[in-house]
Structure formats: structure tokens, C-alpha cells
Amino acid sequence: MIRRIARTALASYFLNEAAKAFTNTKSQAAEAAPFVEFASRESGSKVPNDPEMIVKGQGALMGAAGTALALGKFPRLSAALLAPTVGANAYMHEAFWAEKDPEVKARKQSNFFRTAAIVGGVLLAAADTAGKPGLAWRTSHGVDVTRREAKRAAKTARREAKLMAAVAGSKLPS
Asked: Quick check: 3 and 128 in contact, CB under 8 A?
């Protein structure tokens, strides 16, 4: 029950950010433009230099992954997708280190570290197996079980072969 409440609370941030991406696209695109231009230039134009499209795409990702997280559908994958998005958002929108005005700098610094805490929560959600063993453990456990069963089968086969040899040897005419 706690996981469900926590995931829903965590997802509310992303759903709100997704809504803002579609209602305030122009202002967010203006803020993201230098970063989008840099990413486009550095990637050799693999990232389109269209800030509005990037903002809407990020909003769609946050909306879809946030909804999945809230509903408990693929929560680890959803959280893993959200972590870099919220990190990039914090870097773009809360760049307190570039501010000169002390009031704006203090507000952005507070928001940046609040967002960093959300990144921590998302990373915990991405690692949370909900009390079930993770894939790595299940794989290694499966290998161990298979080895034990193979040893047991080999031992049984040797014992049965000895018994069959003994039975076959006792039936030979003298």
C-alpha cells in the first residue's frame, strides 16, 4: 500500500510538469533553446534544433511514464525513464549558478535541490523490486538451481548405471 501511495505522489510531479510542457510550451522552449541548440550541434544534428518539439516530447514522455508510474504499470521502467528527464529539467530551468540576482539565485537553488531530491526518489523507485527478487538474483539463482539439479541427475544416472550393470552381470550365464 505504501509503494502505491508513494509512486502516485511521485508521479504527480511528472504529471504536473507534463501539463506545464503543453500549456507553457513557448516559455519553456525559450528557456530550453540554448540547451537544445547545444545538443543539436554536439550530436551532429541527430537531436533536432526545435526547442518546442523537444519540450512537447519531454512533456509527453513525462506524462506517459508518470501515468504508468502512478498506475503501477512497469514502475521500474517508468522511473528509469523519468530520472534523466527530471535531471535535465533541473539543469535547464534551475541553473542557479548562472544567476546574479541573490533572490532569484536563492529561489532557483532551492528548486534545484528539491528537484534533486525528486531525482533521488525516482532512482529509488527504479531500483525498487517491490519485495520481489530482481532479475540479476533470479538469473543467478536459476543458474545455481540448474547446476544442483544437473549434479543430482548425473549422480542418479551413475547409480542407476551401476545397478543396471550389476543386474546385467548377475543374469549372465556362468
From this structure: yes
What distance in Å separates the CA atoms of residue 14 and residue 107, rounded to the nearest whole number?
Answer: 20
Cβ partners under 8 Å of residue 108, min gap 6: 94, 95, 96, 99
Q: Tell me the per-residue pLDDT of 85-137, one tens digit each, with 9 for 90 and over.
A: 888 878 777 778 888 888 988 988 888 888 888 888 888 888 887 667 767 77
Q: Please state, in angstroms and rounded to a whole number, the distance separating the CA atoms of residues 62 and 81.
A: 8
